[in-house]
Design goal:
about 20% strand; globular; seven-stranded mixed sheet; 7 strands; binds S-adenosylmethionine
Length: about 220
């Protein structure tokens, strides 16, 4: 969670949030037990797409509604926003589940079972000494390497030019190829863009939205 200058803002604890998460059947409670078995959870062999840092969940909920033949897992470390996503996701969205966890554990949670990874408006961590916390730092890219099926594909959107440029360099260092790129998504010819909460907020303020899709075999 960050403000206009990219500074990190601590989210307040919400007492009811944990209870809502605990009571929800959309939340995968024992997620470490499903490594290499997430298909069993969805009871089909459809591809699984993962979003890390879903916030209040608008993107992943709408993606799941639009793409019933894809399974979606949304991961978020803060209960204070995740519970809102859980409340919004109606019980009938069978192809969507949530994990209350930290991306640092991602390679302990998934085997080679993710087809696409979405990183939307990830915290920019502007200070150089915090760069390793960025979700596109080498630490994370090396972990993602272990969770992809054969083709590795990452779709990223951000309003933060510095994070965007840093990420392009990191993707390149890790041998990803750029498939699609936009420096002003909302004035581009992309159709079917599913908007996130941060995207809505920043694009309304007139900030350009950056998007890149990278992949490698
Ligand atoms: N994706 C949403 C959007 O575009 O509106 C939320 C963006 S918000 C700036 C970034 C979110 O990523 C926050 O909710 C934060 O808690 C979550 N996050 C950051 N680091 C994370 C990590 N290591 N594991 C899981 N979630 C993380």
């Amino acid at each position: 969670c960050y403000n206009n200058t990219g500074d990190y803002m601590r989210l307040r604890k919400n007492k009811n949030a944990l209870k809502i998460l605990n009571d929800s059947n959309k939340v995968i409670h024992n997620f470490f037990d499903y490594k290499n078995k997430f298909n069993e959870l969805f009871e089909n062999k459809n591809p699984i797409h993962l979003e890390i840092g879903i916030g209040k969940g608008d993107f992943i909920i709408n993606m799941a509604l639009k793409n019933p033949n894809i399974n979606f897992v949304g991961m978020e470390k803060f209960d204070s926003v995740l519970f809102k996503a859980v409340l919004k996701a109606e019980d009938k969205i069978d192809n969507l589940r949530f994990i209350h966890g930290d991306a640092i554990d991602i390679d302990k949670i998934f085997g080679k079972e993710i087809s696409v990874l979405y990183l939307n408006f990830s915290d920019p961590w502007p200070k150089t000494r915090h760069a390793i916390r960025r979700l596109t730092s080498s630490i994370f890219l090396e972990k993602y390497e272990k969770i992809f099926v054969e083709t590795k594909k990452i779709e990223m959107k951000t309003d933060n030019r510095n994070l965007f440029e840093y990420s392009l360099i990191k993707f390149n260092e890790h041998n990803y190829k750029i498939n699609e790129i936009s420096l002003d998504l909302h004035n581009s010819d992309m159709i079917n863009n599913v908007v996130t909460e941060y995207e809505e907020k920043f694009s309304k303020k007139g900030f350009p939205i950056y998007r890149v899709v990278v992949d490698k075999k």
